[in-house]
Each structure stands twice: as C-alpha cells, then as structure tokens.
Write a structure and sequence with these properties.
897 residues; alpha/beta; Four Helix Bundle (Hemerythrin (Met), subunit A); nine-stranded mixed β-sheet; five-stranded mixed β-sheet
C-alpha cells in the first residue's frame, strides 16, 4: 500500500471505528433526541410520528449489514433470504423506565430527564464543556469496545477509561396480522420472547423469533408456546452464538416453515445503545417465486413501510446493478418523488472487479453527485458537488463483511478497518478520493452515519411543530372521551332505586303507547291474528250448493275485512267476492267463474270446496275452510232420536252439534298470550339494556328478575284465560235471548233459501204475489211478505235446518265474547302491571337481590368501560408529559410552532 493510501486508510479508520454516539448527530442534537426518546418511553411515538429509519432493498442486497454498520446491531445475514418478516430495532441510549414507575405517577418525564446523559451544551452559559466532552469520549469508547468484543476500559488511544454502561436487548413478537396476512381487528400486546445481554447472541435469537412468527400453528400446539423456541441463552458462552432449542431444530430450515413471509414484526428494544433511533429492516424484495402471491405480499409490506412521511428511506443498492432500475428505487419514487427523505446506499462495491474501470467510475460519479450536506453532517472534505436533480440527498457507498468474513466472526471494529483499507487501497476509489476530497463524506459507514444523523436531525426538528399540534389534538380527543363517559356511581342504593323507577316508567310508556307506539302496535297485530284464527274455527254448513258461515263481512270487523280484501288481487279473488254475499257462498257460481266443471249436488260442492285452489282462496279471504254438510246434520239428528214425540228434536243432538265446534279456541288464545309474553320479554330486555348499559352485573340481575316477573304475570293471565274458555266449553250460555232468536231466524231463512233455491221474481210477479197475500189475509192467513210465506212452507229437513241455524247463531254470539276475553286480560293482568314501579322493585327484591346490599355490586362499572377509563387517564397523563417534553428547552428548538 502506498504512503498516500495508508494515510487515507488511517483517516477513514479513524472515523469508521466510531459509532453513532460520537458523531455530530449525537453531539449537536442530543437534547432533541432526548425529547424523542422520552416520547418513545411514554408510548406516543407512533401517534406523534417520531422519525424512523427504514432500510429496504432487493433480496440479499446487504440491508441487514447496513443496519449493523449504522447502529452496531448485528442481524441475520446471508446470501439468500434471511429477513422473512420486518425487524424493528428500537434503540435507547439510556435504560427504559422500570415498569413499576409507570407513566401515570407523574414521574416518567422526570425519570427520563434524570437518566439522560448530559449534553455538550449542558453548561450554564450554553457553551461546550470540555470535561463533559472528555467524559462522553470515554463513554463512547466503552460502547465501541462492547461492540467490538474488547475488554471494558480499553480506549481508542489505548489508555484506560470508564466501563461500558449496562446493555441489554429485549426481543418481542408483534402480531398485527393473521396467518393469511389480514390485519387483526385489534392489535394484541407485544409478546416478550427473550432478553439478550450479549450482542453476539442477537442474530440467533432474531432467527428464532422469526421462526415463531412463521410457524403459528406449530407454536400454538407446542407446550410452553413461543418460549419453547428460545435459544439456550443460559448456557451460551460470551461472544459465541447460543445453541438452538430442540423445538426450533424440529422445524428444520426455513423452506419447511408454514409461512414463507409474514408482515408480523420481530421487535428489538435495546437499552444502552449507541443512539436513540428506531430502525425497521424490511424483508428483501423478491422478483421470482413459485408462488406469485408471495412476491406481492413482500412488495405490499415494503410499500406500507415506505409510505409514512416520517420514515427516512435508506435504499440498499448492490453495486454492479443499475441503481435506477432497482425495484426499491421505483417504489421510493412513488412515495417520495422529490427524494427529500430517501438516501441511496451502494452496497457490496467489491463485487465490481477492479479492472472494470467503467462500472467503478459510474459508481464514483453517482456517489460524487452528493448534494448539500444534511444539517449536522458536517462539511469535512470540502464543498459538495451539485446534487443529482432526482436524488437531492445523494448516495453513499459502504463495504461490509463478506460471507467469508461473517463465517470468521469478524468484529465490528475489524469490519470497519477492513472497509477503510478497501477504499484506500482500491485503484479507482483512492484516485477519486485524491481528486475529490469531499467524497470522503460519502464513503464508508462513518460517512453514512453522519449523513443519516443529519437527515434525522432535520426531520426531527421539522416534525416538532406537527408533533406538538398532534399531541394537543390527541389530548383534546382523550379529554372529550373521558368527559363523555358516565361518572362512577357514588350512592349506589339510591341510584339503583332511581334506575328501577325509570325502567318501570319506560315500560309503562311503551305498553300504554304514551310516546312510542311501536310495542302497542305490535301487540295489537297479535290480537288481530288471534281473532282471525278464532274466525277459522267458527262453524259453517253446506246446504245444497251453498256454503253458509257464521260471520259476514260486517261480523269480521273492519280490520279483518280489509285484510281479506287486501289478500286478493287476481281474477279468482274478484270472482270469489262476487259470489260471497251475506255470509253465503254460491259454490255453483264460483265453479262456473273459475271454469271448473258444473257443481249441481251437495257432494260435488263439498269436493270442489276441498280442492287446493279453493282452499287457498278461502284462507286468503278468512272464509270457512271446514264445514258440515246438511246430510251430516241429518245423520247426527237421526243418531240421537229416542223417546221424543213426533215433531220434537232430541236436545242431545243439538248439544253434540255445538260440542263439535267447541274446544278449538284454546290454541289460538294461548298462542296469542305466548306471543305477547315474548314481546314483553323483548321490551323489558331492551329497556333494561338501555338503562343499565354501563353496568353488566346490574343488567343481568334486573333482566333475570323481570324475566321471572313476566313469566309470573303470563302464568296468571293464562290461568284467567283458561278459566274463561273452560266456561265457554262446558256450558251453553245464550246471552241476549232476543238477539239469539233474531240471529236464528236470519240464519234459518238463509238455509231454507239454500235448500229450496227459489226462482228469482220480476217486479210484476212480486206485485201479483202481494195481491194474493192480501186476499189470504182476508181469510185470516197473514204473511208480512213473500219471504215470510216462502219460509213458512215445510221441508223434510226443517229440524236439521233449525239445528244448523241455532248453531250458527250461538257461535256468532259466543264469538263476540271470546274475541275480547283474551286481549283484555292480557292487557289488564300482564301489560298494565308490567310497568308498576313498586312491583318492578319488588321483583328485583324477590329475586334475592337486597337492593341496599347488592346495589354496589349491581352498579359496578363495566370492565371494558373501567379499562377504557384507565387507559384514557394513562394516555392523558402520557400526552401531558409528552407535551411538556415537546415544549421544554430540551427540545432544542423554539417552544412554540
């Protein structure tokens, strides 16, 4: 090596062996970074978008080596795919606050400030304190020694110094996605995996943590879960890789893993690091795979991490390939078209043979177009050349250990020395450095650290006003949420009594339709349905080809008549309406209207009525579907003839006829009661759920008590209805006899007409008949009308017609009683008592809930609400401390945005 090369190598080594702790970044902005460190410890860095470094590139582009070179954190590296999930490295120069301290005790900010090392401007006058700088140099020496594997106390100058501060790395598993890559509805807490106190153990532990995330089913089925895959750290030798756990070895290599990639992250939380940074190392971009979906999966992961404005993008660009066509370059342009937050890092320059001058000179020109130095990066080596218009932040070039070097367990310090020797001894790089001394700013890990430092400083300072604004907005949102939460109950017994009173008032309001008529209308529809079902149970008789029912349109009530009319719409429905008059259906006319074969006898009429099409019509129009023929009535009377004198009918036959249609109302009545009771259950559940929405224990207890109350009232109502129906079934009560006789006469007239089927008379014929009736009257035979004379003529079935007419008349009277005997007790016994405030309180008391004693338990706050209140209170405290940190002089910028 020439003398000039030796001098250049010495200069690069002098800067290359240092870590981020002794760069301009740490010297000039320690106060600013202490503020961001405080924000991370308070757990609000994600909300406030604290600047983060993201390293991305193609598979095997040297990304992980860049992480190690930039921050002294060794990660898994190989020629193939070794990063199969994002790895987030959270570095803190000071130890994380103990869990016992908490952030709600008001001590997090003071503890962070107390534990932070003094900065270079910590003197009273704000000037540099040389003694402090010397102490910092000694601390930095200890950190470098730790990274290089040297004994504590060794300095770069060979003298003694202070020992390294405590260093440890907590590795955690962050699962935000399922095994299909779909984001979970809620992010679970990060799961601790292991604690590492030797940097040589990190790579092995990271690979094990990746294996856990990539084999979710195997981990779930393993006793001990993820802990069974932790390397054997307790038996590991210092500076040597620990042995793998047996369960991890059983998974074999990555080609046998359940998932080839996952967006879930391995998190490294490092205390005592060289800098306060967060670095995300992403999986390498792949361009070919047997499963095309994996290519898109990795691309989506990379793009998602490049997009945030507070992420600095470090693009790993392997030498020997066109940097402008690299996938990472294209992805970066989509999210950072101006290049204001992206830096290119040329890796593996030794892959370009030294004799290929053209390719090497191309790299030199790319690195030489470096642009203005970022704030805090310094200006060593002279002024900068003009920046590339598409890459204002320029490029850096680093040489990290090869696979052979890694296999020899090369130290961090030796890796940096080898890097300096490579550039100093390279024919073209050394010559370019002599021509362009400013290239030294862009060559090697030290220059990269300075460049990243300066860019981080710019972004942190630029973000401070926005972080303050976001912090105030988040604080206001949390305060608004806390204000909207119901206050905890102070006097539980009194409040429980008030809530039960409000429950009763709400129930009464619904059952009486005082305000909301929904429940009232719902139960009214149930009463109407009950009436319709009872109508279908009423008797009907087929006399000849005429079907005579108990009710006509007026007897069914306006609602039922309207429903029957609304059910129609087709031609057959209109024809049915035309032939149904006065409660009688002309079956012959209906058959003709429907185009069916002629109906001339009672048997043909019965068969026609039982056809499917006609049965559906009868159902739609609330007409009787079942009936007795006149022949069946004749047979019934004949069967009960006994010792009666001629001209008398056996009363037992009449009783049997009535009994045939009795006992059919119980089913519809109890069904109606069951429906109303179910609606009452729904109503009480809804009212209680609204009133006790924040008190699950009280909601369950009161709901259960009122459920039993509704059941009790329903049983009492059922008992009353059963009694009413039993009286109807067991006895024959005519009610108003005059009304019954009038109905009998009316039904008898319909039946005689149906039986005799008189011819229609013209007006002239009716006038002649009236003259004849007047002549008969002179002989003492008086008829009020032709109809009276017609009905007076005897028939062979007068007794049977009279029995059928009496049956229809009786059930029409009974229907008037039964249609109200079910809804009224339901409303009186069940619904009206449902909203009685005294009975509601008594129901809760009867359920074994002593109101005074049980009130505190019943009105205990919902666990989710209590947890949310605590979370909001803690978050409010963290945001308050964060805002104080952002407005403190430690931020290193003006106090107000």
């Amino acid at each position: 090596m020439s003398a000039a090369a030796a001098v250049a190598a010495a200069g690069l080594a002098a800067s290359g062996g240092a870590t981020l702790a002794d760069t301009a970044y740490q010297r000039t902005v320690r106060r600013v970074l202490n503020t961001t460190n405080t924000l991370r410890e308070l757990g609000v860095d994600g909300d406030l978008q604290v600047p983060t470094l993201v390293i991305a590139g193609d598979q095997s582009s040297g990304k992980s080596s860049v992480v190690e070179a930039s921050a002294g954190v060794p990660l898994p590296r190989s020629d193939g795919t070794c990063t199969r999930c994002p790895t987030e490295v959270r570095m803190r120069t000071t130890q994380q606050l103990p869990a016992a301290t908490g952030v709600c005790g008001g001590s997090a900010l003071s503890a962070a400030a107390a534990s932070s090392p003094p900065g270079p401007h910590s003197g009273e006058d704000g000037e540099d304190d040389e003694d402090d700088e010397d102490e910092e140099d000694e601390e930095d020496d200890a950190v470098v020694n730790n990274a290089a594997g040297l004994p504590p106390g060794t300095t770069r100058g060979g003298g003694g110094g202070s020992s390294a501060s405590a260093w440890q790395c907590r590795i955690k598993l962050c699962r935000e996605f399922d095994s299909d890559g779909v984001r979970l509805a809620t992010k679970p807490p990060e799961q601790p995996f292991c604690v590492v106190r030797d940097k040589a153990h990190i790579a092995t532990c990271v690979l094990a943590a990746q294996a856990v995330l990539l084999n979710p089913r195997a981990v779930e089925d393993t006793p001990g879960g993820a802990g069974a895959f932790v390397p054997l750290l307790s038996s590991a030798q210092p500076g040597r890789q620990p042995a793998a756990a047996a369960k991890l070895l059983a998974l074999r290599d990555a080609s046998h893993y359940e998932l080839p990639f996952t967006p879930n992250k391995v998190v490294l939380e490092i205390d005592g690091a060289e800098a306060d940074l967060t670095i995300i190392d992403l999986p390498g971009i792949i361009h070919s795979h047997e499963d095309p979906r994996l290519i898109e999966l990795v691309k989506d992961m990379v793009k998602a991490n490049l997009a945030p404005e507070h992420h600095i993008i470090a693009m790993a660009l392997p030498a020997g390939q066109d940097a402008e066509t690299q996938a990472i370059r294209l992805m970066t342009r989509e999210v950072d078209p101006d290049g204001r937050r992206s830096i290119g890092i040329i890796t593996k320059p030794d892959r370009v043979p030294e004799h290929e001058a053209g390719e090497t000179l191309k790299l030199i020109r790319l690195v030489g177009a470096c642009g203005a130095p970022p704030a805090g990066a310094g200006a060593a080596g002279g002024s900068a050349r003009v920046a590339h218009p598409q890459h204002p932040l320029g490029h850096y070039v680093v040489k990290n250990p090869s696979q052979d070097g890694l296999a020899m367990n090369i130290t961090f310090e030796q890796a940096r020395a080898d890097e300096a020797a490579y550039f100093a001894g390279h024919k073209h790089w050394a010559a370019a450095l002599r021509r362009q001394p400013e290239l030294q700013r862009r060559m090697g890990a030290a220059a990269l650290r300075r460049g990243l430092s300066g860019l981080l400083v710019e972004l942190v300072i630029a973000q401070l006003p926005e972080m303050r604004r976001s912090c105030r907005e988040l604080q206001a949102a949390v305060q608004e949420e806390l204000g909207a939460m119901p206050q905890p109950i102070q006097d539980a017994p009194r409040e429980l009594d008030r809530m039960l009173t409000r429950v009763a008032a709400a129930l009464r309001c619904h059952t009486r339709a005082d305000d909301d008529c929904t429940f009232y209308q719902r139960t009214q529809a149930m009463y109407d349905d009950y009436c319709e079902r009872v109508m279908r149970c009423l008797p009907a008789f087929l006399v000849g080809t005429t079907l005579i029912g108990t009710l006509d349109a007026s007897g069914k009530g306006p609602d039922a008549a309207a429903a029957a009319a609304a059910a129609g719409g087709g031609d057959s429905d209109a024809q049915l309406q035309q032939v149904w008059e006065g409660g009688a259906l002309d079956v012959s006319a209906l058959a003709a209207a429907l185009g069916a074969p002629a109906v001339t006898t009672e048997a043909e009429a019965a068969a026609f009525l039982y056809s499917d099409e006609v049965q559906q019509l009868l159902t739609d129009h609330l007409l009787p579907q079942t009936f007795m023929t006149l022949a069946e009535v004749v047979e019934l009377r004949q069967r009960h003839l006994g010792r009666e004198l001629p001209g008398f009918s056996p009363y037992r036959a009449m009783e049997c006829l009535l009994q045939r249609f009795k006992g059919q109302w119980r089913g519809p009545a109890l069904a109606c009661l069951g429906n109303v009771a179910a609606a009452a259950h729904d109503l009480t559940d809804q009212v209680v759920a609204v009133e006790f929405r924040d008190f699950p224990a009280g909601s369950r207890a009161v709901t259960d008590a009122l459920w039993r109350r509704v059941e009790g009232l329903s049983d009492a109502t059922a008992e009353f209805i059963e009694k009413q129906l039993r009286m109807e079934d067991r006895d024959v009560y005519p009610g108003d006899k005059a009304q019954l006789q009038e109905l009998q006469a009316d039904f008898l007239a319909r039946m005689k007409r149906a039986y005799l089927r008189p011819n229609a008379l013209s007006d002239e014929q009716r006038q002649q008949i009236e003259i004849k009736l007047a002549e008969l009257a002179t002989y003492g035979v008086k008829f009020a009308s032709f109809d009276a004379a017609f009905l007076a003529q005897p028939t062979p079935v007068d007794d049977e017609l009279h029995m059928a007419a009496s049956c229809l008349a009786y059930f029409k009277v009974a229907f008037g009683r039964v249609r109200a005997s079910v809804p009224m007790p339901i409303r009186d016994t069940l619904l009206d008592r449902l909203g009685d405030p005294y009975e509601v309180a008594a129901a809760v008391q009867a359920a074994g809930q002593d109101i005074v004693a049980a009130a505190p338990r019943l009105l205990a706050e919902h666990p989710h609400l209590a947890a949310r209140r605590l979370w909001c209170a803690e978050r409010q405290q963290r945001l308050r401390e964060a805002l104080e940190a952002l407005h403190s002089p430690a931020a290193g910028v003006p106090l107000h945005p």
